[in-house]
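Q: What does the predicted 3D structure of diphosphomevalonate decarboxylase look like?
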Amino acid sequence: MTNSATAVAHANIALAKYWGKRDETLAIPATSSLSLTLDAFHATTTVTVGAEADAGTLDGRPMSEGELGRVSRFLDLVRERAGSTARATVTSESTVPTGAGLASSASGFAALAGAAAAAYGLDLDPRDLSRLARRGSGSAARSVFGGLVVWHGGTDDATSYAEPVPGGEAGGPLDPAMAVVVLDAGQKSVSSRVAMRRTVETSPFFPGWVESTEQDVRLMLDAVAAGDLAALGALAESNALRMHATMLGARPPVRYWTAHTVAVLDEVQALRAEGLPCWATIDAGPNVKVLCSGADLDVVATALARGTDGDEARRVVTARPGPDLRV
Ligand code: 2P0
């Protein structure tokens, strides 16, 4: 039996967002969501079974107590299924800045799920692997697959899984790509987990968010099937603004935007007015990801790199559809 395995998983950015759980323990989301896996950011994780106690490193430094606890609880799920009590060593390297709304937990837990399942000898198909990854971090369910991915929200462990959506390939009729505008790669002030919970519990807008997002996912799948990037992009930008409106309605409010975030939104609107099709989306942090066609990616990225807010720290990373999880 193999007792060491390495997996590589790529980050994903949601076009229809996951924000709020219906079941915290099982990580069942309140809504379905749709995402694009990116080639630009990935995590590489190795799990080696056979140690005194679970231990781990993240980008070469020992994991914090909190990080290790979360990894250890995830490994418990794998051990339970594998009928093993053996502890493991986990080493993870990521090209995604941790905790900055750049989907570090998605690629991190997808890679951990792939490596841990293999190291403990579980034979899981991709759907089951996505269900397992979901337990580590909801959005990790989507990073099991490349390109465009739908996460069916479902109602229980069996029905909440991700699967690829045809049409998200680079160079295809849709040819989706993203310019990632990194404004601040630092750790965010409120974790998405805490912010989601607060939104579910206190935002009066939450029921409207759930209803409209289910509808957005259906409309987006239609847009993908029709190869209509403009329809997909307009829905994505609106969905992201609705997610932020919903969390702004929480008490105390959750606000991830900075003045620089708003500057990028203005720039995207100006580029569209000039005839360059592109649409913004924002996650649990100040950074803005801009969806456009692969053919326009370099022009969009160059325009956004100039900026209008005099922010010297701004960086733009270009990304195209990324691959499936590899073990
Ligand atoms: C998403 N985000 O769909 C949304 C949009 C952030 C904003 O999924 O609590 O780290 O581990 O399930 O997956 C970030 O949430 O949360 C996220 P948990 P996760 O990409």
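A (community wiki): The structure tokens above were generated from the sequence. The two ends are 15 Å apart (CA to CA). The chain has a mean pLDDT of 95.
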